[in-house]
Amino acid sequence: MMNGLDLSESQKQQAKTLFEQSRQNTEPIRQQLKKNREALTAAIKANDPGQIQQLSTQQGQLRGQLLSVHADTRAKFLSTLTPEQRARVESAKPGKRLKQRFFQRRNG
Predict the structure, then answer these.
(1) Is the pLDDT of residue 74 over 50?
(2) What is the mean pLDDT of residues 66-87?
(3) In CATH, which of 1.10.3720, 1.20.120, 2.20.25, 3.40.50 is domain 7-107?
(4) 102 touches 2 (CB < 8 A)
(5) pLDDT surpassing 70 at residue 61
(6) Cα 73 from chain centroid (whole Å)
(7) Tens digits of per-residue pLDDT, 80-92?
(8) Among 45, 41, 39, 37, which Cα is nearest to 62's?
(9) pLDDT for 2
């Protein structure tokens, strides 16, 4: 899809920078999610309802933070596009991630 957008070199560099920053910004959150999942698994095995509730709530908050970073990155990326490019993105099949498309096309 990214190839279908006919991005300029400047846009490609901006996208690369945005997605790299997003990955760096989400790394600590992803690490927290992993630790939280491990703790939640232990709480389930220990049949600790209080801990399960607390960790489940934390898991939701962390996922919300991750979603926020991804949405912000997408909005910033979309702001770099021309109206024609935005129209192509909006007409694309829903459910496919821009970042995946960009890196699959560039590196694949």
Answers:
(1) yes
(2) 92
(3) 1.20.120
(4) yes
(5) yes
(6) 8
(7) 999 998 888 887 7
(8) 37
(9) 62
Q: How far apart are CA 99 and CA 97, in angstroms?
A: 5
Q: Which two tokens stand for residue 6?
A: 């006919």
Q: How many residues does the chain have?
A: 108
For 24-80, the DSSP string reads HHHHHHHHHHHHHHHHHHHHHHTT-HHHHHHHHHHHHHHHHHHHHHHHHHHHHHHHT
* 3 has a pLDDT exceeding 80: no
8 A C-beta contact, residue 15 and residue 103:
no
- Work out the end-to-end distance of the chain between its first and last CA atoms, rounded to an integer number of angstroms: 13
Q: Where are the domains of the chain?
A: 7-107
